[in-house]
Write a structure and sequence with these properties.
The chain is of the alpha/beta class. It has a domain of 165 residues: Response regulator (Rossmann fold). It contains 9 helices and 11 strands. Strands 2-1-3-4-11-10-9-6-7 form a 9-stranded mixed β-sheet, sandwiched between helices. The radius of gyration is 17 Å and the shape is globular. It starts with a strand and ends with a helix. The relative contact order is 0.16.
Amino acid sequence: MADRKVLIFQGGWDGHEPKLTSARFERMLSKHGYNCEITDTLDTLADAEMLKGLDLIVACWTMGEIDHKYVINVSKAVGAGVGLAGCHGGMCDAFRKDTEWQFITGGQWISHPGGDGVNYTVNINKGSSPIVEGLDDFSVSSEHYYLHIDPAVEVLATTRFPSVAYYHISNKPVDMPVAWTKFWGNGRVFYTSLGHHDDVFDKSPNAAVIMERGMLWAALGKDYAIRHNLNTERFENAAKMY
């Protein structure tokens, strides 16, 4: 197998245990032959050509601010076929001021009514993706993530709101996406809202399966684009506005 490269960038709010989750994701990927580099600085994203040489970028950075040029570098790399994956606040509560990041990733955290320790069920969307094939619904005790969602995403799992009494209970019940995939140009994007703390993946093993499979799925987008001779010309004119 050709050299497969992954960049994991970790940082931001320490409460999401970015070092622990990054180390876990490295272990998940390494056993499949991926060579992972973990970086503690967003400045790594300044090297656009390096990013395009990767197979996968894993985001583990909660909140914070980012130079918009770095987001555009990620956008172009993913658009060319590099995968992007992440969990919980490490990807969809990162860089709240940068709407392009939200456009790429497919969602943005807005609340977790009840805080940590809410007991809820993750409902698998059977047949939605090989990522969840063979998995059954499972229970989680963690933050219950309410997000604003890109309607273009492919939903792999959901959870029912409301679960605790907060202002939103005056509205109808909703099934909130927990895990999804989407495409960005030729690249594959995967996200799961599970992973508030690293031990969520131990306490709810299906959460770990979904994360591992999701990263592997995203990492194969570049090979697919090459094998099917998919170019990026159709995206490049619109991208020039940035």
